[in-house]
Amino acid sequence: MTGHIGRREFITLLGGAAAAWPLVASAQQPGKLPTIGFLGAAPSIESQRVTAFEQRLRELGWIEGRTVAIEYRWAEGRNERYAENAAELVRLKVEVIVTSTTPPTLAAKQSTAVIPIVFAAVNDPVGTGLVASLPRPGGNVTGLANQMSDTSGKKLEFLREVLPGLRRLTIMANAGNPGSMLDMSEAQATARRLGLEVTTAEIRRAEDIVPAFGALRDRADALYLCPDALLNTNRVRINILAMGARLPTMHGHREYVEAGGLMSYGQSNQDQFRRAADFVDKILRGAKPADIPVEQPTKFDLIINLTAAKALGLDIPPTLLARADEVIE
Predict the structure, then answer these.
(1) 297 vs 8, higher pLDDT
(2) Cα dihedral 37, 206, 175, 140 in deg (nearest 10)
(3) Is-contact 190 153, C-beta < 8 A?
(4) Is 12 helix (H, G, I), strand (E, B) or coil?
(5) Do 249 and 223 touch, CB atoms closer than 8 A?
(6) Quick one: 223 and 78 in the same domain?
(7) pLDDT by residue (tens digit) across 257-313?
(8) 20 to 30 A Cα–Cα from 288, which one of 55, 135, 317, 328?
(9) How far apart are alpha carbons 121 and 271 in whole angstroms?
């Protein structure tokens, strides 16, 4: 690295390197940096999350190429690639594997019972069998839950504020993602309690998206999408199809709204990935995943796209706009 470096930065660098040094000395062959394996969906989905993760690692003294190495592997919207990518990271003997949602975390867990795994946003890690309990995960897996199912009531409440006449709701999910299917059943139960008619659309591949929209023509007043990497990879296409069908959409993450969706409500993924870096830091310094409690989200964002609202001929109530964390115009 060239250029002037301030005294404080130098001390920070030194502190980080010194703190990491005992581990590097004891656990590594000479010259090999401790390595983090990152099992991701696609760079187009996770670039902001990766930035937040790397920034927090730097604050903790882990600087890529200097005190730590990071190996990224992307599934590019194909769930079956998680298993291949996880097996490759295990062969590389990485010190820790970082994942985001349920499918890559399950793939990592099936690939290794030894290498620590940190997930950044998994829906119901106990119910999906990833951990024994939230306070004592018990195995080689820990991280941050995302309580998607707990947000379904809020999402439907926000939809009804925008659509007071909402009667018929379609819920779309990737049938291959246990976390999304859990969200679907929670949303279904909540919608029925509110007296809504519910239809579901299950997809497994990108090719299922267009036929799913064909099937729900004139059968819904709004569309609730359960967050998932396959849906996220195809978010632009989904939003175009929804707009063509005049369907207001409710999503779980901001990326969907940036890509033309109407609204999203859910935990801040940037915040979750920042916090995942703290888990990685503890593990690289010798903590065992079995002893690190799973944490819950603390920051939830409501994002509203006014351009999409205008295109759908919807007026967003000022009270709801006032509650939004971000309004896209």
Answers:
(1) 297
(2) 0
(3) yes
(4) helix
(5) yes
(6) no
(7) 999 999 999 989 899 999 999 999 999 999 999 999 999 998 899 999 999 999 999
(8) 55
(9) 10
Helix (H) or strand (E) holding 11: helix 7-27
For residues 184 and 249, membership in a common domain is answered with: yes
Is residue 100 a part of any domain in this protein?
yes
Are 141 and 191 members of one domain?
Answer: no
How does 72-81 read in b/e, with b if 16+ C-beta sit within 10 Å? ebbbebbbeb
Q: Which domain holds residue 89?
A: 7-146+269-299
The domain that holds 183 is classified in CATH as 3.40.50.2300
Q: Which residues contact 56 (CB under 8 A, 6 or more apart)?
A: 273, 274, 275, 277, 278
**What's the first-to-final CA gap in the chain, in angstroms?**
40
Asked if the structure places residue 176 within a domain, the reply is: yes
Residue with tokens 């290498």: 115
Question: Do 80 and 222 fall within a single domain?
Answer: no
Gap between the Cα atoms of 268 and 256, Å rounded? 13
Which residue type sits at 264?
A: S
